């Protein structure tokens, strides 16, 4: 099983600031098959990024993903008020797909 | 627009059974694998079961293997999860998720709103 560790656990930022979220895998993720999701309270996760760096349909370009192998990053260039939420990474390089524990991006 | 609507959750006693359903619309149901993912405050998001687009192949997490069965009715565009021998640790919000391809080693591109299952006496 690939274990994904996200850091930090909580990120306190103000609107307009840059957010940098990390996701580290316990072993190489095949073909960089890593996705990022955003989840707001009471809602389902929403796909933001797949293939480590490809934005999903309708996702604003302030969201970007990067990384390879075991280290991946989600960057939100300038936080909008609607961006504050919990973000999860997920790998799909193996049949046992696993998620990170999440990073909560909160308003400072 | 893709829509996934879960139903069938609720309160059940330990050892009991529940059958979750997920009604799908807005896409060609028979072209995509489908999955169930659950979420708890303690364990976070956990993939539990998937079924290929053809329905021939399924895969389940060890935590539910032998107790939960995933299936699909393509004529009704509906995904199912039959949950037997339920335990307290199965209490969670269960999400139906659409895979991005016909095979279930891909990312989830759409999710239902989730349905709460509580296992308690």
Describe this structure in words.
The complex is a heterodimer of chains A (108) and B (121). By secondary structure, chain A is mainly β. In chain A, 0% of the residues lie in helices and 50% in strands. Chain A has strands at 4-7, 10-13, 19-25, 34-39, 46-50, 54-55, 63-68, 71-76, 85-91, 98-99, 103-107. In chain A, a hairpin with a 2-residue loop joins strand 7 (63-68) and strand 8 (71-76). Chain A is globular, with a radius of gyration of 13 Å. In chain B, the strands form 2 sheets. In chain B, strands 2, 4, 5, 6, 9, 10 and 11 form a 7-stranded mixed sheet that branches. In chain B, strands 1-3-8-7 form a 4-stranded antiparallel sheet, with no helix packed on it. Chain B has strands at 3-7, 10-12, 18-25, 34-40, 44-51, 58-60, 68-73, 78-83, 92-99, 108-111, 115-119. Chain B is mostly beta strands and 121 residues long. The model of chain B has no long low-confidence stretch (mean pLDDT 96). Chain B starts with a strand and ends with a strand. In chain B, a hairpin with a 6-residue loop joins strand 5 and strand 6. Classes of the chains: A mainly beta (108), B mainly beta (121). At the A-B interface, strand 5 and strand 10 of A face strand 5 and strand 10 of B.
Indicate the structural class of chain A.
Answer: mainly beta
Helical run tally of chain A = 0
Question: Radius of gyration of chain A, rounded?
Answer: 13 Å
- What would you call the quaternary organization? heterodimer
Q: If you compute it from the alpha carbons, what radius of gyration of chain B comes out, rounded to the nearest whole angstrom?
A: 13 Å
Query: In which range does the helix fraction of chain A lie?
Result: under 10%
Sequence stretches where pLDDT stays below 50 over 5 or more residues of chain B: none
Most residues in contact, chain pair and counts: A-B, 22 and 19 residues
Order of helices and strands of chain A: EEEEEEEEEEE
Tally of extended strands of chain A?
11
Basic shape of chain B: globular
**Beta-strand content bin of chain B:** over 45%
How would you classify the helix and strand content of chain B by structural class? mainly beta
